[in-house]
Amino acid sequence: MNKILVVAAHPDDELLGCGGTIIEHIKKGDKVGMLIVSEGVTSRDEKRNYPKRKKEIEHLHSISKNIVKKMGVNFIKFFDFPDNRLDKINLIDIVKKIEKIISSFKPNIIYTHHGDDLNIDHELVNRAVLTAARPIPKHPVLKIYSFEVLSSTHWIEPTKRKAFVPNYFRDISHSLKEKIKYLGMYKGEMRKWPHARSLKSIKDLALFRGSSVGLKAAEAFQLIREIKREK
Ligand SMILES: [Zn+2]
């Protein structure tokens, strides 16, 4: 049995990046935990006003909780760091919280954001995860993958940053429908096609990633690190 930890910046990134893959892991009996680092709402204001947005944040979190319950995820935790303002937080504060979860849950696989992502929270979450999962002796984390998030990962300046080039593809032919259904529950986060973060473009990407490797639908990842340790 694998123990999977998904570390996402905002509510909905966990599904956009690896929702189908998580459904497949759960079908195989793997345990899954999720961490959502930022609250996902307060960037709508010029200055962060948590009390003003508290109800919306709670509502968004209740949607996430509802979705992961239906999926069969073992736990989800919200760190509630400022949305789209992680660059104002000391990275070590995020790292420590992730480290704590890693040492209690002991995941062997982590899925997280691509390090050269346009969204500042995505970029810093990647950095925090790699710091929290430093491969010291006997560390439980043996595989780390980064995922792509439509309306962010592909919006970098490609001549200056490292574009997302996947080398690991997970068949989600049997879970794409379910992924789209769950994403539809994040009504406030989804946009109308041809916006990149629309249900249609999410489906289109899955079909494209699939057919590029001979599958009906897939989620694509970059393998950041894999360790094969003999017992
Ligand atoms: Zn995000």
How would you describe the overall organization of this protein?
By secondary structure, the protein is of the alpha/beta class. The protein has one domain (3-226): 3-Layer(aba) Sandwich (Rossmann fold). The chain has 6 helices and 7 strands; from the N terminus they run E-H-E-H-E-H-E-H-E-E-H-H-E. It has helices spanning 13-27, 50-71, 91-105, 120-132, 176-184, 199-211, and strands at residues 3-8, 31-38, 75-81, 109-113, 143-147, 168-171, 218-226. Strand 4 (109-113), helix 4 and strand 5 (143-147) form a beta-alpha-beta unit. The longest helix is centred in the N-terminal third of the chain and has 22 residues, at 50-71. It binds zinc ion (ZN). Residues 9-10, 13, 119, 122, 149 line the site of zinc ion (ZN).
Could you say what the CATH topology is called? Rossmann fold
Instruction: Classify the helix fraction into a percent range.
Output: 25-40%
**How many domain regions?**
1
Bound molecules: zinc ion
Q: State the order of secondary-structure elements, H for helix, E for strand.
A: EHEHEHEHEEHHE
Q: Give the CATH architecture.
A: 3-Layer(aba) Sandwich
CATH class: Alpha Beta
State the helix count.
6
Q: What gyration radius follows from the Cα positions, in whole Å?
A: 17 Å
Shape: globular
Largest sheet: 7 strands, mixed
Number of DSSP strand runs: 7
Beta-strand percentage? 15-25%
What order do the strands of the largest sheet run in, or round the barrel if closed? 3-2-1-4-5-7-6
Name the poorly predicted regions: none
Which features would summarize this protein structure in a list?
6 helices, binds zinc ion, alpha/beta, 231 residues, Rossmann fold, 19% strand, seven-stranded mixed beta sheet, 7 strands
